[in-house]
């Protein structure tokens, strides 16, 4: 099953593609205007539950050592790590 964000992204790409017919662009624009592509809370909860906690912790630890991560984000990650 495709996520709503992927569908919306494909429709937006259709609008910018010069090789797509005007009819297809009109249909894509109509869908973008009339359909709801927001994700529900249930979908985002499912993705969080499906993640391996060891991988999540490892990613947080790696971010703490990354010089490109801001100090405020590192503090946030450190507090989340302490919750685990």
From TrEMBL:
InterPro entries xref list: Conidiation-specific_6 (IPR018824), UPF0654_domain (IPR052670)
Domain of life: Eukaryota
Coiled coil regions in record: none
Pfam families assigned: Con-6
Residue ranges with Basic and acidic residues bias: 22-34, 71-84
Positions of the UniProt region annotated as Disordered: 1-84
GO cellular component: cytoplasm
Cited PANTHER family: UPF0654 PROTEIN C11D3.01C-RELATED
Protein name: Conidiation protein 6
Species: Melampsora larici-populina (strain 98AG31 / pathotype 3-4-7) (Poplar leaf rust fungus)
